[in-house]
Design goal:
Blueprint: E1 14-19, E2 25-33, H1 36-44, E3 49-53, E4 59-63, H2 64-71
Antiparallel strand pairs: 1-2, 1-3, 3-4
Length: about 80
């Protein structure tokens, strides 16, 4: 039986690398956690992707653009 997984609200995932205007993955020097405020700040700095630590030996990449759109949906056009 698999262990229950934590939700993102319980503990935000840690960002290990960022992908941006330099067109390469850049290691994050300090511990940064993915929160809505952090995503907005990183997106404003020009980063587009983040590599998240999702387990003891696993990681996953997410699009900061889609993450920001998900937490701040655009208003519907009339």
């Amino acid at each position: 039986m698999p262990r229950p997984r934590h939700t993102l609200e319980a503990r935000p995932p840690r960002i290990t690398h960022l992908y941006g205007t330099s067109l390469k993955w850049t290691k994050v020097p300090q511990k940064i956690f993915l929160t809505p405020e952090t995503a907005l700040q990183l997106r404003a700095e020009g980063y587009t992707m983040a590599l998240l630590r999702s387990g003891w030996r696993s990681s996953r990449s997410i699009s900061l653009i889609r993450y920001v759109q998900r937490i701040q949906p655009t208003p519907e056009a009339p």
